[in-house]
Design goal:
By secondary structure, this protein is an alpha/beta fold. The protein has a 5-stranded mixed sheet. The protein has a two-stranded antiparallel sheet with strand order 6-7.
């Protein structure tokens, strides 16, 4: 049995929700049109899946967003099932289909199919940031050839993995992490300003770039600390040089992702200029590195962004 205080809090929360939801429903009803974003994800610790639907609309000169619902998914994530759930959420808020200008999703076939079933083919738009971030993932990764994983560029996935192992070791080993901090403090950093290595997270856009940027910033520190830890496989000078080029290629992708992730302004009009600028950076890097061993990396990035 719940305590009287907890029960009272629950009643208060429900009343607050009803009041706020009525205000939001009335505000949405007055809008001539809205855009939706729909996304599915799985909570890693419980393997529970959810569908989230968010509405976006202008208020004066800024964009505002309202989460319409987060629904637990209990069946196979087919297009029909997701379409049913999207209709449930949007219907709960009284949103007429004709008032939905666009619905933005990632590139998964099931969520794309669901949105098209609910709102029509002409009202689906793929997420530009999601598509853009597939380029580094593909170019730095592997391809399937006769059921074997073959690097798109020889040696590059292995080099990225080598950095990941060092970063992972710094997160697992207190002694190694402490040595990194000690060396930085000897170089003038304080307890509060000493930096940690950043790990690449497969589901987080730009995390490979941020990992390499921090790793290169702490190159000297990592190399010195590794002298006391034989289990750390130190990078060679040529490998560090390759990492610098990869970081420089990833930088415009990271900047473009940040620019396109604005919450208070529209960004669709920036897509073509941003693609043009990213391609220009890739082609300039390719020209500067022509004839070197890393030229093929840049060409692959340039080809993927065309």
């Amino acid at each position: 049995m719940e305590s009287p205080r907890k029960e009272q809090n629950n009643v208060h929360d429900e009343a607050k929700y009803e009041t706020l939801s009525t205000l939001v429903r009335d505000a949405l009803a007055q809008l001539p049109a809205v855009c939706l974003t729909c996304d599915c994800w799985t909570e890693s610790h419980t393997t529970t899946s959810f569908l989230g639907v968010t509405a976006h609309f202008p208020v004066e000169s800024e964009m505002e967003s309202v989460v319409l619902g987060v629904t637990m998914l209990n069946e196979a994530h087919t297009s029909d099932y997701l379409a049913e759930k999207i209709e449930e959420v949007s219907g709960r808020w009284g949103k007429e289909k004709k008032k939905v200008s666009l619905a933005v999703t990632d590139n998964a076939d099931n969520i794309k199919g669901a949105v098209k079933k609910v709102f029509g083919n002409d009202k689906h738009l793929g997420c530009f940031d999601h598509t853009l971030n597939l380029t580094p993932k593909a170019a730095l990764g592997y391809k399937k050839v006769q059921n074997e994983n073959i690097p798109n560029v020889e040696g590059i996935p292995e080099l990225i993995d080598k950095v990941k192992k060092i970063v992972g070791f710094s997160h697992r080993s207190y002694n190694f992490a402490n040595e990194l901090k000690r060396i930085q403090m000897e170089m003038g950093k304080s307890e509060g300003t000493a930096l940690r290595l950043c790990q690449d997270v497969i589901t987080r856009w730009g995390s490979t770039y941020l990992m390499l940027e921090r790793f290169l910033d702490l190159r000297e520190v990592v190399t010195l600390a590794a002298l006391k830890f034989p289990e750390v496989d130190v990078l060679t000078a040529s490998q560090f040089a390759t990492l610098r080029v990869i970081r420089d290629i990833l930088k415009p992708f990271h900047q473009a992702t940040t620019e396109m992730s604005a919450e208070k302004t529209t960004t669709a009009s920036k897509v073509i200029p941003i693609i043009t600028l990213v391609r220009k950076v890739c082609f300039n890097l390719a020209h500067a590195c022509k004839g070197s061993s890393i030229y093929s990396i840049i060409i692959l990035f340039s080809w993927r962004i065309i």
